[in-house]
Amino acid sequence: MENTDKIIEGTITHSVLHKANTRGHADHGWLESYHTFSFANYQNRERMNFGVLRVLNDDRVSQGMGFGKHPHDNMEIISIPLEGDLEHQDSMGNTTVIKEGDIQAMSAGTGIFHSEYNKNKDQLVKFLQIWIYPNKKNVTPRYDQITLDLNDRHNKLQQILSPNPEDDGVWIHQDAWFHIGKFDNDFSTSYELKKPGNGIYAFILKGDFTIGNITLNERDGLGIWDTNTIKITANSANAEILLMEVPMEL
């Protein structure tokens, strides 16, 4: 991990760099998981969270295997499938399958139980599991899932999550905005933060990027705060990035 001041879009900002090979790693046979922040048996005092972003797990679940029914409360839980089909069931009566292009959000609130399984017997399922601290506690549990048009993220940032039910993407109880972009080589764009005081955590899904003067490779993470705008440039073809704008104060 690298904590340092960097020049992002011409202004001095604060940043933290998490290279892919420095993440926590757990191999349970049926589940292989990489933890950007402390989770389960991986505990690192310097990696507890980035603002209200508490968990960023990069999971691979074997054929037909999965997480049995287990509880959550007072957390906003977002699942982003990257490959394969993930079957979801919960105590609110929802039974569904999420796949690449889908976004799932749950407000655990006063408490829910859910399970997640690889629906297929012949391929892995890969997905990101993200936990966000809510800005309201003990809300009524809720579930939200949508399917997005993957073409809408080609050379632009597609909004997949926000605090507003009427906006594009799913919504959660927090002043957070998520975007995914898939860019051609040498394509550049800028992202302007939506709320003063928020920070942004970039996670590289595929390929290579430069943000400001920082080079990032696949599965690297970069947190930036005390800035209003960041410039993003793809350094490879079909490079894909997830941007998570979140409040920095818990």
TrEMBL record:
<feature type="binding site">
    <location>
        <position position="72"/>
    </location>
    <ligand>
        <name>Fe cation</name>
    </ligand>
</feature>
<dbReference type="InterPro" id="IPR041602">
    <property type="entry name" value="Quercetinase_C"/>
</dbReference>
<comment type="similarity">
    <text>Belongs to the pirin family.</text>
</comment>
<feature type="domain" description="Quercetin 2,3-dioxygenase C-terminal cupin">
    <location>
        <begin position="160"/>
        <end position="246"/>
    </location>
</feature>
<protein>
    <recommendedName>
        <fullName>Pirin family protein</fullName>
    </recommendedName>
</protein>
<feature type="binding site">
    <location>
        <position position="70"/>
    </location>
    <ligand>
        <name>Fe cation</name>
    </ligand>
</feature>
<keyword id="KW-0408">Iron</keyword>
<dbReference type="Pfam" id="PF17954">
    <property type="entry name" value="Pirin_C_2"/>
</dbReference>
<dbReference type="InterPro" id="IPR003829">
    <property type="entry name" value="Pirin_N_dom"/>
</dbReference>
<dbReference type="Pfam" id="PF02678">
    <property type="entry name" value="Pirin"/>
</dbReference>
<feature type="domain" description="Pirin N-terminal">
    <location>
        <begin position="21"/>
        <end position="132"/>
    </location>
</feature>
<dbReference type="InterPro" id="IPR012093">
    <property type="entry name" value="Pirin"/>
</dbReference>
<feature type="binding site">
    <location>
        <position position="114"/>
    </location>
    <ligand>
        <name>Fe cation</name>
    </ligand>
</feature>
<dbReference type="InterPro" id="IPR011051">
    <property type="entry name" value="RmlC_Cupin_sf"/>
</dbReference>
<dbReference type="InterPro" id="IPR014710">
    <property type="entry name" value="RmlC-like_jellyroll"/>
</dbReference>
<feature type="binding site">
    <location>
        <position position="116"/>
    </location>
    <ligand>
        <name>Fe cation</name>
    </ligand>
</feature>
<dbReference type="GO" id="GO:0046872">
    <property type="term" value="F:metal ion binding"/>
</dbReference>
<keyword id="KW-0479">Metal-binding</keyword>
